[in-house]
Fold:
Amino acid sequence: MSEANSRSIVSNQPGLHEKLDEIVQKHLAAEFKKPIAEHTQQAFDEVNEKVQAFNGPLILDSCCGVGESTANLAKLHPDALVIGIDKSSHRLDKHDVEYKQTESGHYILVQADLNDFWRLALEAGWQPTHHYLLYPNPWPKAKHIGRRWHGAPVFPFIVKLGGILEVRSNWDIYVKEFARALELAGHPVAVEAYESDTAITPFERKYWASGQSSTRLKLDLSR
Structure:
């Protein structure tokens, strides 16, 4: 399939999930006790050494895929250390040589389960200045609401990590649901159409080339 022929998201949900509020409030009130996977603990420990030794802003690029967005964010924030996290070694292994480290930014790519990584980051006292969630898997079927980050037990940890959170998707319902979840957590935020002259992720470039639009929310959780 060519970049200019990317399929739009199809869902059996016409609007916000009918159980969204109930699910989010349950997770906000509960303690997430899932054991930390050993491979994520090891990956985190290695990255944490570098983070603790770095004297500058810290930025998270969660669900970074092949890491093109991570490299681009490092160029946009040359004084920061950008951590790109994805659970797929297959995607991370595709990280193109042209994105490798340059003088215009510092970044690290790590394979890890974000359900564990975010909790470890909070426990270690990480305080990211920015947290990007760019085009995460939307899980558009209504029955998969619990797989969307705002419908998952780990959602409260996204909020607690703080920083300027930016979520983008080509499925506006995903961003609107995320905004509603943030509102339930005490952080109301507006949702807006997003356009730019430059796409910073492969998905963003593909969606725009096929005529799809992006929706985003951007919120300073540190306030």
